[in-house]
């Protein structure tokens, strides 16, 4: 729990934090996964996917603002004190995975852009070590007043560089859109691609309350995260989609940043790679400490942050980026059903009233032996539904299907008891 007097994030500050998370080469890269949809359908998928995923993200964060609890602590309501250890461990794995992917991707792009500057800037390992060290240092400043003004300056700088990057991407002198493919594009295929959009904001749901609990107001926390992340993430996806459609590349971020280098914009390109990865990666390191603290309060956050930071640097040196899409689907399969259950419990069953609940010892919560079997069972069913929906090309897509099935089953079981 965190006292209201210690909360320092305004609505604007919250928006800047999440905008910084969204300005990421990984989000540009993810936009390339939608090129089968074409421009119009692709942009529509991006917007709708972010509306759904963004609402889940920001709604989940309201618990942190109102009650000052961390994201993984909130899962104790539906899984039990000991049951919440399972998503906490999964969250640590996905946070390490995300930090590793972004470091590995940024290392490759940094080396590609920096080849014009020579050694050591043309080395992938150099960029991974540099960005990894910067991210780790940034993580220790979360919640500090010293971070806020620096963070504001960095995010404004990133937005300006992103605007320059967008101008280049839309300039027909550099990129010319190719005619749309003649093949028909089905609704089912569109929903399958939307899963790859929805999962991006959903991947931040297991840690949003770690930051929304620092917000001064519930309204500012909700709209700051919804608009700050949603708008900028759509923007990054859109850039990736446009460049991929124009060039056929599967790595649009590297493509446009290399082009910026040839146009004499090497320094802005390098700044974007370094700063965007740092502002996107530090929540992973900080929140891994929060998740492990939920498992055992004796685990010192500083040790966890050091361990996570160093581990991601080592893993990034060897990670195979071709596994990116598989990683996204695994994240969606586990966390979409979980937070469908949690939001159903919080908004529809408890009516946003957690009075009398003690998240430290579990008093006021209905579970036995530290586990809430009902919640664990529905979570398992929802995860299975996600994988099955992907396998059979469910018309609604895996994300929305798993969310609805998990929510309805949990609600029905609660009404019967």
UniProtKB/TrEMBL annotation:
Q: Which Pfam families match?
A: Transp_cyt_pur (PF02133)
Gene Ontology CC: plasma membrane
Question: Which keywords belong to this entry?
Answer: Membrane, Transmembrane, Transmembrane helix
Gene Ontology molecular functions? cytosine transmembrane transporter activity
Q: Which residues cross the membrane?
A: 40-64, 85-105, 125-142, 149-170, 221-244, 256-275, 303-321, 327-349, 370-389, 395-413
**Its principal location?**
membrane
Where is it located? Membrane
What family, per the record? Belongs to the purine-cytosine permease (2.A.39) family.
Spell out the protein name for this chain.
Answer: Permease for cytosine/purines uracil thiamine allantoin
Organism listed in the record: Sediminispirochaeta smaragdinae (strain DSM 11293 / JCM 15392 / SEBR 4228) (Spirochaeta smaragdinae)
The lineage, from the top, is:
Bacteria, Pseudomonadati, Spirochaetota, Spirochaetia, Spirochaetales
